[in-house]
Write a structure and sequence with these properties.
Elements (H helix, E strand, L loop, with lengths): L1 E3 L27 E2 L11 E7 L6 E9 L2 E4 L5 E3 L5 E3 L2 E6 L12 E3 L1 E4 L1 H6 L7 E4 L5 H4 L3 E2 L4 H4 L4 E5 L20 E5 L2 E2 L3 E4 L11 E8 L2 E13 L4 E5 L2 H7 L5
Parallel strand pairs: 12-18
Antiparallel strand pairs: 1-17, 2-14, 3-4, 3-8, 4-5, 5-11, 6-7, 8-9, 10-11, 13-14, 13-17, 15-16, 16-19, 17-18, 18-19
Amino acid sequence: MESETSLEFEYSRGTEEPPISAADIIGADERQQLQNTLTLDLRMLVRLKVHLPGLPPRRATGFMISPATVLTAGHALCSRLVSGKVVRATQAFAAAASAGPNQYPFNDLVCAEFAVAQQFLANQNPLFDYGVVQLPEPLGDKIGFFGVRLFQDSHLQNRPFILAGFPDAEPPRPERPKPIVEDTMWGMMGPVAGAPQFLTYVLDATTGQSGSPIYSRFQENGKTVLLAAGLHQGGNFQQNHAVRFRPDILQEIGPWRQ
């Protein structure tokens, strides 16, 4: 399994390891806006606008894992209220390869079917922070979908991984004079470190990128394949982290991919 980096990114962090402890922006904001969202990998990223009863709409990122299934963060699809009641998504709008407001090359699909990991619904356990959105059509037959893979720690080392998604709109910052416009795609590339349940990294991300895949390109049997090792969950000012795929996760999401 040979790695292949994307020409959309400059891999500027070398092989430095993330700090030992796990925000969103670590130091300067080094994300790049990804203008060409129709490349082999980026077109399979999905901007989600999720509606939950009684709450403001929330944004997240998801990624295709089968012809009609988008994997994303569980906390994008449900929320526990102060009363203890759990509210779940009733509707979502999904725009693959979104390049900006009303720039949806594959339309903004209305979705009404969702599933969330049972242990996340029960007690918001961060180890089970994942769920899926079912699209109303098999868009993945047209644009493709990611493979999800159990990576050994040795396969994570000395290899660049990509974190890209759709952050919420933000004004310019001193270190990033360009504003972030809603529905635009941003990302960066760098190393990840493996722990038993999580992946950690110093790749920048902000609200709206929850559910983004942590992925890389590989060559298998002479073909380029895109494999995700986990999905972005959050972080703090020292490092960000993703839920790392485990056998039990792949077993739970397996039926959702049908």
